[in-house]
Design brief:
By secondary structure, the protein is an alpha/beta fold. The protein has a single domain, classed as NAD(P)-binding Rossmann-like Domain (Rossmann fold, 3-Layer(aba) Sandwich). 29% of the residues lie in helices and 22% in strands. It has helices spanning 15-26, 38-46, 89-103, 139-149, 171-174, 192-205, 222-233, 253-256; strands at residues 7-11, 30-35, 50-56, 60-62, 73-76, 108-114, 123-125, 155-161, 163-165, 181-182, 189-191, 210-214, 241-242, 248-250. The strands form 4 sheets. Strands 4-3-2-1-5-6-8-12 form an 8-stranded mixed sheet, with helices on both faces. Helix 3 links the parallel strand 5 and strand 6.
Length: 277
């Protein structure tokens, strides 16, 4: 999809969404998006990003305007808030978004899910794995995916990101000084800029009506990453590790076969800045 005269709507101008917006604008796309903060809306507009105050709670609240859905592609990245909301809250958000998108005749949707939809079965996970209500590892996200796939009048691509890292989001820092940390699982991470580039790639290459696992293709153990982060950045590593327990390894070959190249294929080489905001 050529960027010229194409308009992308971003529901969720968060840490990743803002970076995607800037990349799309640089590539020649028009961008409109939403945030839940008045302060951030003003900051985004100063950067030239046409933004509106809108949240789904689970029904839409705020600046409900046609501009956000009058787009060629709608990118939906709204975290499910599983710790504070019941499992049906996020699917209800997505149902409202789907209804609004259909009413506006949005032709293409990208929905950001996560690799947490796969259960920890001590094996490699592929997009072709048949997940169900009973077997999924993340019921809210999996249900939301099903809502968007059902009898859809639009093209849809579901993106299952691994753990999003970069700037001051350092995996080893989260577990610094802690005991009984699961260090044996293979890491399923993706660097922030690769996540942004992946969305631009999907749009520019018109990769529709499929699901992609998007994670760095190299999977060192989490313990190796935590120890490396601690040594490199000067904080304490975990005090002790668990040596057994559930895990999964996310396969990203399907996305790589589209021609996408990861700038940061190895999580051991992700750059960080603890002073970043």
């Amino acid at each position: 999809m050529d960027g010229k005269n194409k308009k992308i709507g971003i529901l969720g101008l968060g840490w990743i969404g803002e970076g995607i917006a800037l990349r799309l604008m640089k590539a020649g796309y028009q961008v409109v998006g939403t945030t839940t903060s008045e302060e951030k809306k003003n900051r985004l507009r100063q950067q030239g990003i046409d933004s509106y105050l809108l949240e789904f709670n689970p029904a839409p609240e705020g600046e409900i305007c046609d501009e956000v859905f009058d787009v060629d592609v709608l990118y939906v990245n709204i975290p499910p808030s599983r710790r504070t909301k019941p499992n049906d809250f996020h699917p209800e958000q997505i149902q409202h978004i789907r209804d609004m998108a259909i009413e506006a005749k949005v032709p293409h949707i990208i929905y950001v899910s996560a690799t947490s939809v796969y259960p920890d079965l001590r094996q490699e996970a592929f997009e072709s794995d048949q997940l169900t209500y009973e077997t999924t590892g993340n019921l809210a996200l999996w249900t939301a995916e099903q809502i968007l796939w059902e009898e859809k009048p639009y093209d849809l691509t579901v993106v299952r990101f691994g753990g999003l890292l970069g700037d001051n989001r350092v995996p080893g820092n989260y577990f610094s000084g802690k005991e009984n940390v699961a260090g044996h699982p293979p890491a399923n991470y993706i660097y922030r800029t690769d996540a942004e580039r992946a969305i631009l790639w999907i749009i520019s290459q018109s990769l529709w009506n499929t699901t992609f696992n998007i994670v760095a293709p190299i999977h060192p153990s989490k313990a190796d990453i935590y120890e490396h982060n601690a040594k490199l950045l000067g904080f304490s590593p975990p005090k002790s590790y668990l040596n057994d327990g559930p895990w999964k390894k996310i396969n990203s070959e399907k996305f790589i076969r589209t021609g996408f190249t990861f700038e940061y294929p190895d999580p051991m080489e992700f750059p960080y800045d603890l002073n970043a905001r």
